[in-house]
Model the fold of this input.
Amino acid sequence: MKFVVLVADGMGDWPVEELGGKTPLHAAATPVMDRLARHGVAGLCRTVPAGMAPGSDVANMALLGFDPARHHTGRGPIEAAAQGIEAGDDDLIWRMNLVTVDGFGPDGIMRDYSAGHIATPEAASLIAALKQRLDDEHFVMHPGVQYRHLLVQRGAADGPAARLAPRPPHDILDRPIAPDLAEYAKAPALDRLVAEAARLLSGLPQNAARANAVWPWGQGRPLRLPRFQDAFGMAGAVISAVDLIKGLGRASDMRVLDVPGATGLLDTNYAGKVAAALDFLGHGDFIFVHLEGPDECGHGGNARDKTEAIRRFDALVAAPMVNALWDAGAVFLVTCDHLTPTALRTHHADPVPFLLAWKGCTAPSNLPAFTEETAASTGVVVEPGHDLLRWALRQVRGT
Ligand SMILES: [Zn+2]
Done:
């Protein structure tokens, strides 16, 4: 059996006035997903366990079949796994954004969680300059992609820094940063590091971007996951532009397929992702294709761009995958990890719509289209979310 999971990050939404009261998924032309919804089973899935933050890390871990309540240690550790960064069990790994703030102090405001979507080479130069001044026996910075970097705090997994709760910067756009600075202040060494980084960044001559602070968050011990193949009996691979998906793949010993030009934005290399997925399925069993674009549009609050991102997901990813594999009996699970409502501009933990379709489905939902509303109308709810993959395998096998 070939099993295809297509994830449009943050695709789920609420009705938007600008779209005539439709959600972006409803407003977008999605003939392929609509056809799958006629021939398959749709429903809702609670990807975010109660009490956990609705992050992509938590939700995608659940979609891959691993219980976040059991395995999730933080976002930083997942991304460290993606980069193959070795860390000891008592180290604390932070995700560290380059951000734009209006004033790094008690009156400061978070303006941009991505420092203007800073380009990777420019970011690398800034992080290199920070490393030179700030890396020591306690802290090591690791440059990543665009605004997404990592900070390893040695031996801190049982110290005060482990319990801090600075908010993800994309959750506090245009809001005061004072509560988060108060968090950092509880761990003096970290507090000194973030203050010094902000001071250095404003003074760097090569800093033409809007990166004027670092923002550590999502910390935890190194991630350890079971092997995907042992858990599900399928040889699997993941494809994504973003590190956290690669980290989940690496930590569960899946193949991580790198696609040049996968940007995480609307202009990503769709054809490259599809080609890599089809190539892998020539021998492998399970492919997890992740598209970040809809989520980025949701954070930007742009319903029309989000609608376009979903249209492209359907036309440029779902269509060629279905065309190539439907007749051969492949199974398609199409969903999103969490909602990113454009009205909210951040993630929401409500259950996500999903559809499961394959050629031999004998009791299809017969839906006219795939939307949040039609998926909810079937009454199918898969909960907890990490059961979705096992639930899907049971449907397909008729057990
Ligand atoms: Zn997400």
